[in-house]
Design a protein that fits this description.
Length: 135
């Protein structure tokens, strides 16, 4: 499928290390292993068409101001969480960059229409045989 070419500039992505939620033992309150990613779509160097497609998406990660917020905390490693957050951002942009193929409306063939009508007639005959016999 065709897609809009783009390059993601790492300097435009704001990554912050924050404390992760959930289990982690005594370490969870001391170490900032989760990553909070913020990406301003409107201020980015992405192509204009891609920006409008991204902002038009109904995704809860995109705010009304056009800022994408992604939180990654699945791993206990800061580097893995950082890589996961960037991968999720790229996946979101890739999905918006993909141009769907135009749908061509199709019509049923003559034989398929004929078979459909014949099936309906046959079903009607079966039901007619269930009626009371009148002589």
């Amino acid at each position: 499928m065709p897609s809009i070419p783009y390059t993601l500039v790492e300097e435009e992505v704001d990554l912050q290390a924050i404390r992760a939620q959930g289990a982690g033992g005594q370490n969870v309150n001391k170490v900032s292993n989760a990553v909070h990613l913020r990406f301003d779509v409107r201020a980015s160097s992405l192509p204009e068409e891609l920006k409008t497609r991204l902002l038009a998406r109904s995704d809860q990660r995109i705010s009304d101001e056009g800022i994408i917020v992604i939180k990654a905390q699945t791993s206990r490693s800061l580097e893995k969480n950082r890589a996961e957050a960037l991968a999720r951002l790229r996946a979101l942009i890739d999905a918006a960059a993909e141009i769907p193929r135009a749908r061509r409306p199709t019509r049923p063939s003559a034989s398929s229409q004929r078979k459909r009508v014949e099936g309906k007639v046959q079903r009607g005959q079966v039901k007619a045989l269930r009626r009371k016999v009148t002589e």
